[in-house]
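Researcher: Checking consistency across runs. Here is Neurotrypsin again:
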Amino acid sequence: MQCIQSNTFNCRSFNYRRYDRTCFLSDLNIGLTGALRPYNPIDYYELRTGTIDCSDKSKYFECSNKKCLLRDQLCDGTDDCGDRQDEKNCSPKDFGYSVKLAGAKEENQGRIEVSAFGKTGYICDDQFGLQEANIVCKELGFDMGAIDFKGQSYFARDVKENNTLYMMDDLKCFGNETTLLDCMFAGWGIHDCQDQEIVGVVCKTPQEKCGKGYWKCATTNECVPLTFMCDDLNDCSDDSDEDSQYCEAPTEIRLVNGSSVNEGRLELSHYGIWGTVCDDDFNEDAAKFVCKRLGYKGASTVKKEGYFGSGSGPIWLDQVSCSGDELDLKQCTTWEWGEHNCDHNEDVGVVCDDTEPEVEVQRHAKLPQSGDTTGLANACGLRKDYQFMENDLIQARVVKGATARKGDYPWQAAIRAKSKDKTAHWCGAVIVGRRWVLTAAHCLQGYPKGSYVIAAGDYNVDEDEGTEQLRYIEEYFVHEEFRKGGHKMNNDIALVKLKGHGFEFTDDVQAICLPDTNTEYEMDLNCTISGYGSVKSGVAAYSHRMMAAWIPILTKSVCNMPHIYDSALTDGMICAGLLDGGVDSCDGDSGGPLACLDQGLFTLYGLTSWGHRCGFANKPGVYVKVAHYRQWIEDTIQKHS
């Protein structure tokens, strides 16, 4: 009616934007010609008496919403139809389109640079996966496709961080395309990305030998990263990286190149491939574990810096630290198999005392099968050797400020919300695997996933301590029954999957253990809380340093007393704290850990969820009971790994 009744000009057409019910009037009757600004998504309408006959296909193009466009509006980079219909079936020549790789020494890898309409920019890593990487590589002439993709500006260290020009975002390919132009994306130059989200690819090339950290496929000249072996994804075109002869091969150890059978360079066979172990952090207890597995009862000695000569093949393990009493190598703390920052001149050696053999001595021995089969970390719940005792911080409170020492809480992560040029603390989170963190479900409401970044290894947010790691979210999974069951905070748990290879485990970044489903939550068991939350109840004054404290677990019967929470706690909740007030988690700590020592390992008994104010008498904090959700956690990780 506004168009018909307009007295200011001769209205002949209008665009209607559905989501806010807004009309845009026009005195033209050929869609978005002239200087009109395009609005998307919209419907287009014309007065019947002024409607142009769109049947002349040599002059006009009719959109599915009946909008009539001039032919020169096709393939011009502008979404005139509203569903990109006018920008499909275009040739590279129409756009002045080209694509190349840059930023790496090898021609088969680098950041993706896209040129169109006289501009050159990048592709954002949002939604970008191996399927999109395959299309890029094949378009560039690498017929084997992609072996990997790298987000977070991995190949763009030389690109200045100032209003990065992204040509494509939210790229989605189906696998049968021959060019990126055939894939779906947000539109030329349309994106919501920050500077550090330039994506790159590594394309497969035929090779006689594979480089450091790569494995050669059995019958083809392809090389795949060692970390891609036996991960339930076929990366070799002959599928040999998932062959049972490798994936089911036992892990073995041996000592070689020594003057006697009880000494030598330590070598491991993993997936049937013999390799070495780096000497970084390899301690006497790790040597003790090796000697025990080989049948030696006496003392053991570590030999570093290639004492028994440099080995060959992959360096399978790095940062190995054991207590000496382990029965399985996965109980020792290590980086992931195949991850290291060493050369073979750092291959570790071991000397075993052969004076008291407790069993028949073996030149090499099989180890129990180990591996990250669930997405959860192989080693968990460990931290540096100088942990404080339980009474060290018993009077401290996360609310008012006892600073955690660096390295005390390596499983603590933080969810930060991105703004234009910085990030701000939003919630806590807990590392349970290299690519997986747990948090409270309510923490993931308010922003789209692209607005969050996950930080770990950070103890002072105002300083660059050299230990921080930032990772982006690939996807998150909120419990299906969140806010159901009679309480708005019921089932307040979510899993976050990180992009790429996730966190690199170091002294300051580690995973926490998870409790068994039948774990007993003992009354007065002292546990730790940590985070960057508010230092004052009711005030959003987040701490710039990680805070921590010890608090006791309370029984459900106590928590549900009338003057406390009056039967509000469900089966998936526990409460913990001091009934006379003081020590407590607070605003901004949500999603953070309630960690308890269980058989010597820090175990995630709870996630900070809700409460009535912070540190007040008879109002202890309420936490997600993680044991109650153990099966959900495992099922979710397995489904989405």
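Researcher: Does this match what you'd expect to see?
Model: One thing to look at in this run: The mean pLDDT is 80.
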